[in-house]
């Protein structure tokens, strides 16, 4: 994992994702992916946001975002998803036929240390993990491809990182995560728990009123069952 990191102040980082309702496809062909990226570019013009990374997948997408102010994330995501939904439904002639997304986007705070690298790698190797490409940088609809091969228009979608990126980043992304990393990331996305060291997670949950994401799920155990 890269360790030559220098933390830059300026807002909390978030892992953000959403899926098509009922896991239906959002992107059927190249034009669908490119249309979303055009919406992303328009949204960035209207509602600026630091996009550290993203990956568009057939029925969902992931972003790593770095808002400057507390309410920037909500404004940006509303503009992005509402515009994309309207354009998608109009293009597919599905206006009036129900929802496109499964609901409101999900967002999870990320600690701005090595945990940031773990999340960005998880996002950028999504297509590789799903078997859609042989190497992560071959997937054209994400930040890894853009940084390696994209032109100025595509690169304008991305911001600098809060930490220094290692020169061996591409190889790092192509190396599989450990089982413990995947388990922690999946717990974060399922429960909505912040992703970081335990002490930071506790502090962040208290600050953002997310203590419920730390509690065990399911019915409380009945002491009479003991």
Please give a quick description of this structure.
The chain is α+β, with helices and mostly antiparallel strands.
Task: Jot down its keywords.
226 residues; alpha+beta; 9 helices; 4 strands; 11% strand; globular; disordered C terminus
Textual characterization of the structure:
The chain contains 9 helices and 4 strands. The chain is an alpha+beta fold and 226 residues long. The protein has a 4-stranded antiparallel sheet, covered by helices on one side. A hairpin with a 2-residue loop joins strand 2 and strand 3.
Could you tell me the mean pLDDT? 89
The value of Rg in angstroms is 18 Å
Total strands: 4
Poorly predicted residue ranges: 3-8, 219-226
Question: What fraction of residues sit in β-strands?
Answer: 5-15%
Largest β-sheet summary = 4 strands, antiparallel
The main sheet orders its strands as 2-3-1-4
Number of helices: 9
């Amino acid at each position: 994992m890269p360790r030559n990191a220098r933390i830059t102040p300026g807002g909390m980082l978030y892992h953000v994702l959403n899926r098509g309702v009922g896991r239906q496809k959002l992107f059927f062909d190249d034009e669908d992916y490119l249309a979303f990226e055009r919406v992303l570019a328009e949204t960035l013009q209207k509602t600026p946001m630091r996009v550290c990374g993203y990956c568009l997948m057939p029925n969902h997408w992931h972003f790593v975002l770095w808002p400057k102010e507390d309410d920037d994330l909500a404004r940006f995501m509303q503009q992005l998803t509402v515009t994309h939904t309207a354009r998608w439904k109009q293009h597919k002639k599905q206006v009036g036929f129900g929802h496109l997304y499964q609901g409101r986007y999900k967002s999870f705070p990320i600690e701005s240390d090595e945990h940031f690298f773990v999340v960005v790698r998880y996002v950028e190797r999504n297509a590789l993990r799903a078997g859609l490409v042989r190497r992560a940088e071959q997937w054209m609809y994400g930040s890894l491809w853009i940084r390696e091969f994209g032109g100025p228009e595509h690169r304008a979608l991305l911001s600098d990182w809060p930490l220094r990126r290692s020169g061996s980043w591409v190889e790092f992304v192509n190396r599989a995560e450990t089982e413990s990393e995947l388990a922690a990331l999946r717990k974060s996305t399922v429960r909505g728990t912040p992703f970081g060291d335990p002490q930071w997670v506790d502090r962040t949950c208290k600050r953002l009123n997310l203590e419920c994401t730390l509690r065990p799920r399911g019915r409380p155990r009945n002491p009479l069952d003991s």
